[in-house]
């Protein structure tokens, strides 16, 4: 792996704890003409559950984390074909994997440390706070609301320590959340 830093101002991360409305928001942004890169966590969980694999947060969290890092790097590389200057949203970024390591109290490998420095997104990162009124669990999201709160705080600190500027997305109806994001994106230089 080369030490060259990959940086795209037009790669904009939307992150937050589970159940904060990221997918709904990203789907609305896509309907408004802004594509996004799906998060890899659900894809991994679905694949592991269907193949009876153990790279799952509740079975082998370290293996799950490492697979999440690999898939996130693949997603970043695939997105590099996006025409520069055209905003591309990411449902979570590579730093989310570092935050997850902190959340599960796992040792941070040199590879993970160097990867979050090598693959950089726009300095401004949108973060959705926990929202108890909309929070739901499902077959892939098994965390309780307290874990969602802890995840949010660890994500916030992780991105901050990596020198990203966090923009907290207010708890608003979806059309207003979308307008909030797009209002900020219009002011972000992406070329």
What structural category arises from helix and sheet content? alpha/beta
Principal-axis shape: globular
Q: How is the CATH topology named? A: Rossmann fold
Helix percentage: 40-55%
State the CATH architecture.
Answer: 3-Layer(aba) Sandwich
Strand content: 5-15%
CATH class category name: Alpha Beta
The low-confidence parts are none
Biggest pleated sheet: 5 strands, parallel
Task: Please tell me the overall pLDDT.
Answer: 89
Annotation, overall tally of beta strands: 7
Lateral strand order in the biggest sheet:
3-4-2-6-7
Going by CATH, the homologous superfamily would be P-loop containing nucleotide triphosphate hydrolases
Number of helices: 7
SSE run: EEHEHHEHHEEHEH
Instruction: Tell me the domain tally.
Output: 1
InterPro entries: NadR/Ttd14_AAA_dom (IPR038727), P-loop_NTPase (IPR027417)
Domain NadR/Ttd14 AAA: 12-177
How would you characterize the overall build of this protein?
- By secondary structure, the protein is an alpha/beta fold.
- It has a single domain (about 5-40, about 85-185), classed as Rossmann fold (3-Layer(aba) Sandwich), CATH 3.40.50.300.
- Helices cover about 45% and strands about 15% of the residues.
- It has seven helices and seven strands, in the order E-E-H-E-H-H-E-H-H-E-E-H-E-H.
- It has a five-stranded parallel β-sheet, sandwiched between helices. Strands 1-5 form a two-stranded parallel ribbon.
- It is globular.
């Amino acid at each position: 792996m080369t030490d060259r830093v990959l940086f795209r101002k037009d790669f904009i991360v939307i992150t937050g704890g589970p159940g904060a409305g990221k997918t709904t928001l990203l789907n609305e942004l896509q309907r408004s003409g802004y594509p996004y890169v799906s998060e890899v966590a659900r894809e991994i969980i679905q694949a592991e559950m269907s193949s009876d694999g153990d790279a799952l947060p509740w079975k082998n969290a370290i293996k799950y984390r490492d697979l999440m890092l690999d898939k996130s790097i693949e997603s970043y590389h695939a997105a590099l074909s996006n025409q520069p200057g055209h905003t591309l949203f990411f449902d979570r970024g590579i730093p989310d994997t570092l935050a997850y390591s902190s959340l599960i109290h796992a040792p941070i490998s040199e590879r993970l440390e160097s990867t979050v420095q090598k693959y950089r997104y726009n300095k401004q990162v949108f973060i959705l706070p926990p929202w108890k009124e909309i929070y739901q669990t499902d077959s892939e999201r098994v965390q309780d609301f307290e874990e969602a709160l802890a995840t949010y705080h660890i994500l916030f600190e992780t991105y901050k320590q990596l020198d990203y500027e966090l923009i907290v997305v207010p708890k608003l109806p979806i059309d207003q959340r979308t307008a909030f994001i797009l209002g900020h994106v219009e002011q972000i230089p992406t070329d």
